[in-house]
Design a protein that fits this description.
seven-stranded mixed sheet, disordered N terminus, alpha/beta
Length: 144
């Protein structure tokens, strides 16, 4: 439901999370639950970078029930996720998303770490430890 009217969505986000889980690539999955049930979710999965950098992860998808969007649930999931990924030893996180939104969490674009296809400014990274890698990023196979 969170992606229903999004132009960039092909509608398979729930299946994507299921594929990541089935493949053993769902490194971290967090939910927000109310008396109504689950109202928000975020997933992190491993990525590979062509320079051989290790312990980098992709953030996504992140979803919040439509009528509860813009109430801080997504931000809380992202902040908690970043904190937990850091505790798990992640060196960094990449994502494909709106730079106006994700820059508030410290994500930024840099052409030296890239994902082919979408406009470069929408592919962003957050360095958690060590040095920024340089290369092309590939997501877990569940992303297809």
């Amino acid at each position: 439901a969170a992606f229903k009217d999004m132009p960039f969505s092909d509608g398979d986000e729930p299946e994507l999370v299921d594929r990541l889980r089935k493949d053993g690539d769902l490194t971290l999955s967090l939910v927000v639950e109310t008396s109504e049930g689950i109202v928000g979710h975020i997933a992190f999965s491993p990525v590979t970078i062509s320079d051989g950098a290790e312990n980098w992860y992709g953030l996504g998808p992140v979803s919040v029930w439509p009528e509860l969007q813009n109430k801080g649930i997504g931000s809380a999931l992202i902040n908690r996720g970043i904190t937990q990924m850091r505790a798990l030893g992640a060196k960094g996180i990449v994502l494909l998303g709106n730079p106006e939104y994700y820059s508030r969490f410290g994500f930024k674009s840099d052409p030296s770490i890239a994902y082919p296809g979408p406009p470069a400014e929408y592919f962003q990274y957050l360095l958690l430890a060590g040095e920024r890698p340089a290369g092309t990023v590939s997501y877990a196979p569940g992303f297809g």
